[in-house]
Amino acid sequence: xxxxxxxxxxxxxxxxxxxxxxxxxxxxxxxxxxxxxxxxxxxxxxxxxxxxxxxxxxxxxxxxxxxxxxxxxxxxxxxxxxxxxxxxxxxxxxxxxxxxxxxxxxxxxxxxxxxxxxxxxxxxxxxxxxxxxxxxxxxxxxxxxxxxxxxxxxxxxxxxxxxxxxxxxxxxxxxxxxxxxxxxxxxxxxxxxxxxxxxxxxxxxxxxxxxxxxxxxxxxxxxxxxxxxxxxxxxxxxxxxxxxxxxxxxxxxxxxxxxxxxxxxxxxxxxxxxxxxxxxxxxxxxxxxxxxxxxxxxxxxxxxxxxxxxxxxxxxxxxxxxxxxxxxxxxxxxxxxxxxxxxxxxxxxxxxxxxxxxxxxxxxxxxxxxxxxxxxxxxxxxxxxxxxxxxxxxxxxxxxxxxxxxx
Amino acid sequence: xxxxxxxxxxxxxxxxxxxxxxxxxxxxxxxxxxxxxxxxxxxxxxxxxxxxxxxxxxxxxxxxxxxxxxxxxxxxxxxxxxxxxxxxxxxxxxxxxxxxxxxxxxxxxxxxxxxxxxxxxxxxxxxxxxxxxxxxxxxxxxxxxxxxxxxxxxxxxxxxxxxxxxxxxxxxxxxxxxxxxxxxxxxxxxxxxxxxxxxxxxxxxxxxxxxxxxxxxxxxxxxxxxxxxxxxxxxxxxxxxxxxxxxxxxxxxxxxxxxxxxxxxxxxxxxxxxxxxxxxxxxxxxxxxxxxxxxxxxxxxxxxxxxxxxxxxxxxxxxxxxxxxxxxxxxxxxxx
Lengths: 407, 336
Description:
The structure holds two protein chains of two kinds. Chain A is an alpha/beta fold.
């Protein structure tokens, strides 16, 4: 390991499989870049795919080698799905810090979208392979940290994702706003891809229960891409069978203005997901002063904190009763909106940027790129050395086998 | 907090937590009240679940193979007649021209695809027939049970143990919800609810359980092993096992105790409300007792099974010679 040069900060480049507009992991990565640069680190972003709008701000990951110098560069990898980038990292010499955003378990998808399972399994495999290469791993929630610990990472921490809260407060599209507001009845909102783990069918069932008992004109707006056709069809069929075609709107992907209109015109944000690694829309709802009612699965209780109502179960009538209790008691919406705003303070950018930089520094100390006491224990060092020796032996055996083949 | 919440809520995190706990209690009260009034019929929730199950692919629902096959049949045909209509005449004409120009190529490819998909579907149908034949042959090999084999225990009556169980379960109720599986007529649930404890029951579908649900008790129609498999780890303060414990097979009982250990919070209780084997045998007679596939176990056997998975048996209540209530505790982690 190189001896750190006093006074000179290492370079920390970030790698992300795909940088898309509106994608939470992508927005986080851009914010991390700002935080690192503000802290004095040189930092570039390397991706496999990106939207055109980011051209000029990112490099293709194949160019990484030209930007690295051994003993001075560390790589921060944003892990959210299997990618060629992780495979490349396994063979690169620079120390790696993993920033883990969660991998949805494949079980949610195999009946609905078997084609996706391969990518998820690939991601899980890479999560397990990278432990021996990572000097530190940072999860965006304690729920996600469990995956890191189970995968054997020796040094792990939790740092909340970097969210530009000001970016949530966009101008609502007036046409969409007028359309939503022209309809009677309470409007429920959920924002997120129409995916099996997000359980849109449970939202539809809960709305049916709510309309039956409390508000026959209530509506549900489901904002988000529809990338799983079989699942989307099943949800549509359920909506038709319950005669809710006029009450449930599946918007698909929307513009920033239309999203703001949906938030501004809704009465409650209802989330019944079975699996979320963090769930950014909960924060968006809080930023729009929308009361939150959520089922407490996976990382959701952690994200909501004291900013909304978290339910222990999500039978349709329980959810209906919860939304009714939130909307019908005078003053309650305002109190919950204030609670949401207070919760948002925990994600204030200056705070989260500092926290993230602190964790990157931890990774650099562990990599002995900056001075400090590494977090490795003696036992962990020995286990790591053992794994590295085994890996080296396997590589050398493979090289020998190839050499024999050549002869 | 019923008139206006704005004045009642504080500003600090502790205040927020207290306020949210109050909202949660009001939600629970609303659910209980509505269930008691019959506004939340369990049959409606069941209908919603069954409805969505109809639209799920094979693998997420239990037995919709025929529906899935029909769906696959419908999707297995590729059509070359693309929609070319348009409100604008020129656009429609362009689309028609493009389709005409490419039709020779598309038809060639699609004919092969249709041939492939219809051959594949034929193979699937042949497999379906073969599996159907196998199932029929298997059912012929498995004789129908004798009437004596179907004699099952009606489940122990919780009445003799009510007071003590409510007290013991109440003492740990701060750790989560209390679940009774199976709950039958809901006698214990009602007593727990009356003492202010958060309890619910599941039952695979007895008329007694439907009657209990109609009185406002939270009773869900569910299978015990299936339900416990979906309950979060260490989320229950107490788990009362009744009814099913008397008729399960050995493998099912092993799975049951493993799930009990998994779902009960540290410090929480597992209660087995069982029928005394001797009393049961006396009731059903020796022939039925010998032929029955599952039979009640002795309290000592339950104690052995629960102790093996790390629970500590804290009491065996004997208020009635025909039954017993065995109480086991899950050890809380040691504190320093």
